[in-house]
Amino acid sequence: MATVAADGRPVTVATWYLLEEDGHVTLGLDAKRARLKHLHADPRVSLTVLARDDWYSHVSLQGRVLSITDDVGLRDIDRLARHYTGDAYTNRERARVTAQVEIERWHVWGKLRDL
């Protein structure tokens, strides 16, 4: 996940995501992380999803965060954690938020282009 810092530099971090049926992307974020400040100031975001067996093959998405809401009861981060690990999110102490991203453009590279 890439965001834009206040001074204009790009900042990237690994992030759990889910592509929803409505075409939006759900992100679960720690409520105290710097990237959340970046998104409030500039909602532009980019995600790159790598193929599991071939990191050269990927889908890259660019879009904007439409909303950032409190993750009440950690429902969204639990859904993300179950998707990635099979279990609920383990850290129940820190506040979480959910960001909904609208995809504005995307491209595919490598063997994924043939799907």
Explain the overall architecture:
The chain is an alpha+beta fold. It has a single domain (2-114), classed as Pnp Oxidase, Chain A, CATH 2.30.110.10. The protein has helices at 34-41, 75-85; strands at residues 2-4, 10-12, 17-19, 25-30, 44-51, 54-70, 96-109. The strands form two sheets. Strands 3-4-7-6-5 form a five-stranded antiparallel beta sheet. It has a two-stranded antiparallel sheet with strand order 1-2. Strand 3 and strand 4 (25-30) form a beta hairpin. The longest helix has 11 residues, at 75-85. The two termini are 23 Å apart. The mean pLDDT is 93. Residues 1-109 form the Pyridoxamine 5'-phosphate oxidase N-terminal domain. It comes from Asanoa iriomotensis. Pfam families: PNPOx_N (PF01243). This is Pyridoxamine 5'-phosphate oxidase N-terminal domain-containing protein. Keywords: Oxidoreductase.
